[in-house]
Amino acid sequence: MVDRLANSEANTRRISIVENCFGAAGQPLTIPGRVLIGEGVLTKLCRKKPKARQFFLFNDILVYGNIVIQKKKYNKQHIIPLENVTIDSIQDEGDLRNGWLIKTPTKSFAVYAATATEKSEWMNHINKCVSDLLSKSGKTPSNDHAAVWVPDSEATVCMRCQKAKFTPVNRRHHCRKCGFVVCGPCSEKRFLLPSQSSKPVRICDFCYDLLSTGEMTACQSTRSDCYSQSPKSSLNDVSDDDDDEDSSD
Protein backbone atom coordinates (compact mmCIF):
# COMPACT_ATOMS: atom_id res chain seq x y z
CA MET A 1 0.00 0.00 0.00
CA VAL A 2 2.83 2.39 0.88
CA ASP A 3 4.48 1.79 -2.48
CA ARG A 4 1.23 2.54 -4.28
CA LEU A 5 0.82 5.82 -2.42
CA ALA A 6 4.42 6.96 -2.86
CA ASN A 7 3.90 8.65 -6.21
CA SER A 8 0.21 9.48 -5.92
CA GLU A 9 -1.08 13.01 -6.26
CA ALA A 10 -3.08 12.67 -3.04
CA ASN A 11 0.04 11.79 -1.04
CA THR A 12 2.03 14.63 -2.59
CA ARG A 13 -0.75 17.07 -1.78
CA ARG A 14 -1.00 15.88 1.84
CA ILE A 15 2.73 16.26 2.41
CA SER A 16 2.68 19.71 0.82
CA ILE A 17 -0.06 20.76 3.23
CA VAL A 18 2.07 19.63 6.19
CA GLU A 19 5.05 21.59 4.84
CA ASN A 20 2.93 24.72 4.48
CA CYS A 21 1.62 24.37 8.05
CA PHE A 22 5.20 24.61 9.36
CA GLY A 23 5.99 27.57 7.11
CA ALA A 24 9.41 28.79 6.08
CA ALA A 25 10.99 27.77 9.39
CA GLY A 26 10.26 24.09 8.76
CA GLN A 27 12.39 21.71 6.74
CA PRO A 28 11.14 20.48 3.33
CA LEU A 29 9.38 17.13 3.70
CA THR A 30 8.67 16.12 0.11
CA ILE A 31 11.14 13.57 -1.24
CA PRO A 32 10.68 10.67 -3.67
CA GLY A 33 9.21 7.61 -1.99
CA ARG A 34 8.06 9.36 1.18
CA VAL A 35 4.50 8.64 2.27
CA LEU A 36 2.41 10.31 4.95
CA ILE A 37 0.99 7.43 6.98
CA GLY A 38 -1.02 9.34 9.56
CA GLU A 39 -1.22 12.31 11.88
CA GLY A 40 -2.73 13.38 15.15
CA VAL A 41 -2.37 15.21 18.45
CA LEU A 42 -0.45 13.43 21.21
CA THR A 43 0.39 14.64 24.69
CA LYS A 44 4.16 14.85 25.07
CA LEU A 45 5.67 14.67 28.53
CA CYS A 46 7.87 17.76 28.52
CA ARG A 47 10.25 18.89 31.20
CA LYS A 48 7.82 21.24 32.91
CA LYS A 49 4.49 19.55 32.24
CA PRO A 50 2.61 17.45 29.65
CA LYS A 51 1.83 19.42 26.49
CA ALA A 52 -0.16 18.78 23.31
CA ARG A 53 1.98 18.36 20.18
CA GLN A 54 1.02 17.63 16.60
CA PHE A 55 2.65 14.46 15.24
CA PHE A 56 3.01 13.27 11.65
CA LEU A 57 4.08 9.72 10.86
CA PHE A 58 5.76 9.15 7.51
CA ASN A 59 7.14 5.85 6.26
CA ASP A 60 10.70 6.99 7.08
CA ILE A 61 10.46 9.81 9.63
CA LEU A 62 8.40 11.01 12.58
CA VAL A 63 7.72 14.76 12.65
CA TYR A 64 6.22 16.80 15.46
CA GLY A 65 5.78 20.42 16.41
CA ASN A 66 4.00 22.93 18.62
CA ILE A 67 0.39 23.69 17.76
CA VAL A 68 -0.15 27.35 16.94
CA ILE A 69 -3.43 26.96 15.05
CA GLN A 70 -4.80 23.42 14.81
CA LYS A 71 -4.52 22.02 11.26
CA LYS A 72 -3.27 25.37 10.01
CA LYS A 73 -0.03 26.39 11.68
CA TYR A 74 2.73 24.62 13.66
CA ASN A 75 6.21 25.66 14.73
CA LYS A 76 9.38 24.22 16.33
CA GLN A 77 9.52 21.34 13.88
CA HIS A 78 11.35 18.19 14.99
CA ILE A 79 12.26 15.41 12.56
CA ILE A 80 13.18 11.93 13.85
CA PRO A 81 14.52 9.26 11.45
CA LEU A 82 12.50 6.11 12.10
CA GLU A 83 15.47 3.81 11.52
CA ASN A 84 16.79 4.97 14.90
CA VAL A 85 13.48 4.66 16.78
CA THR A 86 12.51 2.07 19.37
CA ILE A 87 9.19 2.25 21.21
CA ASP A 88 8.09 0.75 24.53
CA SER A 89 4.68 0.82 26.16
CA ILE A 90 4.23 2.68 29.47
CA GLN A 91 1.91 1.62 32.25
CA ASP A 92 -0.91 4.05 33.08
CA GLU A 93 -0.13 6.44 35.96
CA GLY A 94 -2.97 8.58 37.29
CA ASP A 95 -4.04 11.03 34.60
CA LEU A 96 -1.24 9.92 32.28
CA ARG A 97 -2.74 7.04 30.33
CA ASN A 98 -2.27 5.29 26.98
CA GLY A 99 1.40 6.17 26.76
CA TRP A 100 4.58 4.84 25.22
CA LEU A 101 8.25 5.80 24.99
CA ILE A 102 9.84 7.00 21.77
CA LYS A 103 13.55 6.26 22.14
CA THR A 104 16.40 7.36 19.86
CA PRO A 105 20.16 7.78 20.33
CA THR A 106 19.84 11.56 20.50
CA LYS A 107 16.52 12.08 22.30
CA SER A 108 13.92 9.99 24.11
CA PHE A 109 10.55 10.99 25.51
CA ALA A 110 7.08 9.79 26.49
CA VAL A 111 3.87 10.50 24.60
CA TYR A 112 0.24 9.75 25.43
CA ALA A 113 -2.77 9.15 23.20
CA ALA A 114 -6.37 10.01 24.00
CA THR A 115 -7.53 6.38 23.95
CA ALA A 116 -6.11 2.87 24.18
CA THR A 117 -7.19 2.22 20.59
CA GLU A 118 -5.33 5.29 19.35
CA LYS A 119 -2.23 4.21 21.27
CA SER A 120 -2.37 0.76 19.72
CA GLU A 121 -2.75 2.17 16.21
CA TRP A 122 0.16 4.58 16.63
CA MET A 123 2.45 1.91 18.05
CA ASN A 124 1.52 -0.64 15.39
CA HIS A 125 2.08 1.82 12.54
CA ILE A 126 5.41 3.03 13.94
CA ASN A 127 6.66 -0.53 14.47
CA LYS A 128 5.62 -1.49 10.94
CA CYS A 129 7.44 1.50 9.43
CA VAL A 130 10.60 0.81 11.44
CA SER A 131 10.49 -2.89 10.54
CA ASP A 132 10.10 -2.14 6.83
CA LEU A 133 12.97 0.37 6.88
CA LEU A 134 15.35 -1.99 8.67
CA SER A 135 14.37 -4.82 6.36
CA LYS A 136 15.18 -2.75 3.27
CA SER A 137 18.45 -1.37 4.64
CA GLY A 138 19.67 -4.57 6.26
CA LYS A 139 20.49 -2.63 9.43
CA THR A 140 19.86 -3.82 12.96
CA PRO A 141 17.80 -1.89 15.56
CA SER A 142 19.78 0.61 17.61
CA ASN A 143 20.52 -0.40 21.19
CA ASP A 144 21.87 3.02 22.14
CA HIS A 145 19.13 5.35 23.37
CA ALA A 146 19.20 8.70 25.08
CA ALA A 147 17.69 8.71 28.56
CA VAL A 148 14.10 9.78 29.08
CA TRP A 149 14.23 12.87 31.28
CA VAL A 150 12.36 12.72 34.57
CA PRO A 151 10.00 15.75 34.64
CA ASP A 152 10.87 18.53 37.08
CA SER A 153 7.67 17.96 39.07
CA GLU A 154 8.72 14.43 39.94
CA ALA A 155 11.66 15.55 42.09
CA THR A 156 11.53 17.98 44.99
CA VAL A 157 15.06 16.98 46.07
CA CYS A 158 18.12 15.80 44.15
CA MET A 159 17.63 12.23 42.96
CA ARG A 160 21.29 11.41 43.62
CA CYS A 161 22.26 12.91 46.98
CA GLN A 162 18.64 12.86 48.25
CA LYS A 163 19.47 15.96 50.29
CA ALA A 164 19.53 19.13 48.20
CA LYS A 165 16.07 20.69 47.96
CA PHE A 166 15.19 22.52 44.77
CA THR A 167 14.32 26.22 45.04
CA PRO A 168 14.29 29.18 42.64
CA VAL A 169 17.96 29.61 43.58
CA ASN A 170 18.97 25.93 43.72
CA ARG A 171 17.99 24.93 40.19
CA ARG A 172 17.16 21.52 38.80
CA HIS A 173 19.51 19.97 36.27
CA HIS A 174 19.24 16.81 34.21
CA CYS A 175 21.90 14.16 33.77
CA ARG A 176 22.15 13.49 30.03
CA LYS A 177 23.03 9.84 30.64
CA CYS A 178 20.42 8.62 33.16
CA GLY A 179 17.83 11.43 32.88
CA PHE A 180 17.65 12.00 36.64
CA VAL A 181 16.84 15.41 38.13
CA VAL A 182 19.94 16.43 40.09
CA CYS A 183 21.41 19.41 41.91
CA GLY A 184 24.37 21.46 40.67
CA PRO A 185 26.99 19.91 43.00
CA CYS A 186 25.91 16.41 41.92
CA SER A 187 26.27 17.25 38.23
CA GLU A 188 29.33 19.47 37.85
CA LYS A 189 31.15 17.11 35.49
CA ARG A 190 30.88 16.79 31.73
CA PHE A 191 31.33 13.75 29.52
CA LEU A 192 31.30 13.27 25.77
CA LEU A 193 28.23 11.34 24.61
CA PRO A 194 28.76 11.39 20.83
CA SER A 195 25.20 10.36 19.97
CA GLN A 196 23.84 13.40 21.78
CA SER A 197 26.40 16.16 21.22
CA SER A 198 29.78 16.95 19.71
CA LYS A 199 30.74 18.56 23.02
CA PRO A 200 30.85 17.11 26.55
CA VAL A 201 27.46 17.33 28.25
CA ARG A 202 26.30 17.53 31.86
CA ILE A 203 26.07 14.21 33.66
CA CYS A 204 25.67 13.28 37.32
CA ASP A 205 28.61 12.14 39.44
CA PHE A 206 27.27 8.58 39.58
CA CYS A 207 27.18 8.20 35.79
CA TYR A 208 30.52 9.99 35.43
CA ASP A 209 32.25 7.54 37.76
CA LEU A 210 30.86 4.55 35.88
CA LEU A 211 31.60 5.99 32.45
CA SER A 212 35.14 7.07 33.30
CA THR A 213 36.02 3.65 34.72
CA GLY A 214 34.40 1.80 31.83
CA GLU A 215 31.92 0.04 34.10
CA MET A 216 28.88 1.54 32.44
CA THR A 217 27.66 0.19 29.15
CA ALA A 218 24.18 1.66 29.47
CA CYS A 219 23.29 3.80 32.45
CA GLN A 220 19.89 4.52 31.05
CA SER A 221 16.83 4.13 33.20
CA THR A 222 13.37 3.65 31.91
CA ARG A 223 10.78 6.15 33.00
CA SER A 224 9.33 3.75 35.57
CA ASP A 225 12.82 2.93 36.90
CA CYS A 226 13.57 6.59 37.41
CA TYR A 227 10.30 7.31 39.13
CA SER A 228 10.59 4.36 41.47
CA GLN A 229 13.75 5.93 42.84
CA SER A 230 12.53 9.50 43.03
CA PRO A 231 10.37 11.29 45.60
CA LYS A 232 6.84 11.75 44.34
CA SER A 233 5.20 15.10 44.05
CA SER A 234 2.05 16.30 42.39
CA LEU A 235 1.15 16.14 39.14
CA ASN A 236 12.03 18.11 29.17
CA ASP A 237 15.44 19.30 26.12
CA VAL A 238 16.34 22.38 27.24
CA SER A 239 14.45 25.02 25.63
CA ASP A 240 11.96 27.40 27.05
CA ASP A 241 8.51 25.94 27.36
CA ASP A 242 9.01 23.38 24.64
CA ASP A 243 10.56 20.07 25.35
CA ASP A 244 14.01 20.47 24.30
CA GLU A 245 17.56 20.90 25.15
CA ASP A 246 19.21 23.73 26.89
CA SER A 247 22.85 22.99 27.40
CA SER A 248 22.74 24.93 30.65
CA ASP A 249 20.16 22.65 32.24
TrEMBL record:
Protein's membrane topology: Peripheral membrane protein
Classification via InterPro entries: PH-like_dom_sf (IPR011993), PH_domain (IPR001849), PH_domain-containing_F (IPR051765), PH_Phafin (IPR037871), PLEKHF2_FYVE (IPR047966), Znf_FYVE (IPR000306), Znf_FYVE-rel (IPR017455), Znf_FYVE_PHD (IPR011011)
Subcellular location: Early endosome membrane; Endoplasmic reticulum
GO annotation terms (biological process): endosome organization; endosome to lysosome transport; protein transport
Top-level taxon: Eukaryota
Region (Disordered): 224-249
Ranges of residues in domain PH: 35-131
Residue span(s) of domain FYVE-type: 152-212
Skewed-composition ranges (Acidic residues): 238-249
CDD domains reported for this sequence: FYVE_PKHF2, PH_Phafin2-like
Subcellular location, principal: membrane
Record PROSITE patterns: PH_DOMAIN, ZF_FYVE
Keywords recorded for this protein, A-Z: Endoplasmic reticulum, Endosome, Membrane, Metal-binding, Protein transport, Transport, Zinc, Zinc-finger
GO MF entries: phosphatidylinositol binding; zinc ion binding
PANTHER family the UniProt entry points to: PLECKSTRIN HOMOLOGY DOMAIN-CONTAINING FAMILY F MEMBER 2, PLECKSTRIN HOMOLOGY DOMAIN-CONTAINING FAMILY F MEMBER 2-RELATED
Function noted in UniProt: May play a role in early endosome fusion upstream of RAB5, hence regulating receptor trafficking and fluid-phase transport. Enhances cellular sensitivity to TNF-induced apoptosis.
Protein name stated in the entry: Pleckstrin homology domain-containing family F member 2
